[in-house]
Amino acid sequence: MLISLFSSSLIYAHDVASADHDLLLSGGLLAYIWVGAKHMLTGYDHLLFLVGVVFFIQNISDVVKFITVFTIGHSVTLISATFMHVQVNEYMIDVIIGFSVLYKGFENLKGFSVLGLRAPNLLFMVALFGLIHGLGLSARLQSLHLGEEQVLLKILSFNLGVELGQVGALIPIVYGIRSINQSKSYEALYKSVNSYLVVAGLVLIAYQVYQASS
User: Fold this and answer.
1) Tens digit of pLDDT for each residue in 108-127?
2) Best label site of 4, 13, 69, 141, fewest CB within 10 Å?
3) Could you tell me which residues come within 8 angstroms of residue 81 by beta carbon, excluding any fewer than 6 positions away?
4) How many whole angstroms from its chain centre is CA 122?
C-alpha cells in the first residue's frame, strides 16, 4: 500500500512539475515563490524527515533551533548548487533523503542504544541532511524554467517559497505532535509514528533504487 501511495504521489509530482514549468514561463518572481512553497507543502519526503526531527522535542525554542539549522543547510545547497549549475544524480539524492527519514525514525526509537552504539550528534546530522535535502530541491528547480535573466533572484524567490511552505507545514505538525505529547497514549503513538518513518524511509529507498535501475 505504501509503494502504491508513493508511486502515485511521484507520478502526480511529475505532472505538477510540468504545470509549474508553464507557470514560471508566464509568471514573475511571485511564481517562483508560489512554486517553491507548493513544492515543500507537497514534498512528503522532506515533511516526513521534519516530523522525525521535531517529534521528540518538547521546547519550542529547541524546535526553532533544529529547524533553523535544517533551513540553513538546505538553503546553502539549494542556492549555490542551482546558481553554479551543479548537476547531481536525482535518484541517488532521493535515496539519501529516504535514508534520512529512516535514520530519524530509527534514532527516535533508540535504535542506536539497542545496538550498543552512541548516536551521532543530532544537530550535526540535521545540518548534514539539510545540505542533502537542499541538493534535492536544487535538482527540482533546475528541471524547471530559469531563463537567462534574474537567475539569482529567481533562485532566491524559490528558496523563499520553500521556507514559507516549510513554516506552513510545520505549524500543524508541531501542534499535532504537542497534542500527542499530552495524550495518555503518547508512548504507543510515539512508537507507531516513528516505526512508520522507518518503513516509509525503506520504501522511499527501494522505490528510488528501482527507478534508477529501470
Assistant:
1) 999 999 889 998 999 999 99
2) 4
3) 88, 134, 135, 138
4) 17
